[in-house]
């Protein structure tokens, strides 16, 4: 997909053959379990089917998009390896979304369902722990980035200097790190540390191993591995 020229912000001709179809500012990719490729193209999430056709499935709702001359907008995509559900981690809106329908719809903005985040900023030392222990859509987030789903359907995402988790009941918790102003703690000489002792510096992305369900965290100049039994 792409022909070297930018599409318009409203994307009236986004659907059709992927080959030669214009892009604006692609920033994220994710593979679907059916072989589809999901492309985060600035304000549109687009799906390229194995047949070579492309369709828009969701539009990110940001009031600045239609008046922006700077297409530098970073967000992250991931797919549930079992259900095939797509998730979008959007730093700008401080929310995690999932499209209600993955096959395309005319109501692209209405196709976004909030999985986590009210849009409010989670501040250090928040007395309500930014919603931990409650429903994820009612929690405040710092700045969600990398996102991943394991084989059990647990959703993990980077949020500031923490990794937060949403379980199968939609309850959010802090899985790793701290939201206070504590300095990062380096790994010990044997390169291992109890998960409760880890203080992250600047995590940005996540990945889950399909082999053993381990979670990998990219944190500044190191990659951390957390096994399924949280070690």
TrEMBL record:
Does Nucleotidyltransferase count among this protein's keywords?
no
Keyword Cell inner membrane on this protein? Answer: no
InterPro entries, per the entry: 6-blade_b-propeller_TolB-like, TEN_NHL, Teneurin
Where does the record place the Teneurin NHL domain? 1-230
Coiled-coil stretches: none
Question: Origin, by domain of life?
Answer: Eukaryota
Q: Any stretches that span the bilayer, and where are they?
A: none
Q: Which GO terms describe its biological process?
A: heterophilic cell-cell adhesion via plasma membrane cell adhesion molecules; neuron development
Question: Which Pfam families does this chain map to?
Answer: TEN_NHL
Q: Which UniProt keywords apply?
A: Disulfide bond, EGF-like domain, Repeat
**GO MF entries:** cell adhesion molecule binding; protein heterodimerization activity; protein homodimerization activity
Q: Which GO terms describe its cellular component?
A: neuron projection
Entry-linked PANTHER family = TENEURIN AND N-ACETYLGLUCOSAMINE-1-PHOSPHODIESTER ALPHA-N-ACETYLGLUCOSAMINIDASE (PTHR11219), TENEURIN-3 ISOFORM X1 (PTHR11219:SF63)
Its name, as the record gives it, is Teneurin NHL domain-containing protein
């Amino acid at each position: 997909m792409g022909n070297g020229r930018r599409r318009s912000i409203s994307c009236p001709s986004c659907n059709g053959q992927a080959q030669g179809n214009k892009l604006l500012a692609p920033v994220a990719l994710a593979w679907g379990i059916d072989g589809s490729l999901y492309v985060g193209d600035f304000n549109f999430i687009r799906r390229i089917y194995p047949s070579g056709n492309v369709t828009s499935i969701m539009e990110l709702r940001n009031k600045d998009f239609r008046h922006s001359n700077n297409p530098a907008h970073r967000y992250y995509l991931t797919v549930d390896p079992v259900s095939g559900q797509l998730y979008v981690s959007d730093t700008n809106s401080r929310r995690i979304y999932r499209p209600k329908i993955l096959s395309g719809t005319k109501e692209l903005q209405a196709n976004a369902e909030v999985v986590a985040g009210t849009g409010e900023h989670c501040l250090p030392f928040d007395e309500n722990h930014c919603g931990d222990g409650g429903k994820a859509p009612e929690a405040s987030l710092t700045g969600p980035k990398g996102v991943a789903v394991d084989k059990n359907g647990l959703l993990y995402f980077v949020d500031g200097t923490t990794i937060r988790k949403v379980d199968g009941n939609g309850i959010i918790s802090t899985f790793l790190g701290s939201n206070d102003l504590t300095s990062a703690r380096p790994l010990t000489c044997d390169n291992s540390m109890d998960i409760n002792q880890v203080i992250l510096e600047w995590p940005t992305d996540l990945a889950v191993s399909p082999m053993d369900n381990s979670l990998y965290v990219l944190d500044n100049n190191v990659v951390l591995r957390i096994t399924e039994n949280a070690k």
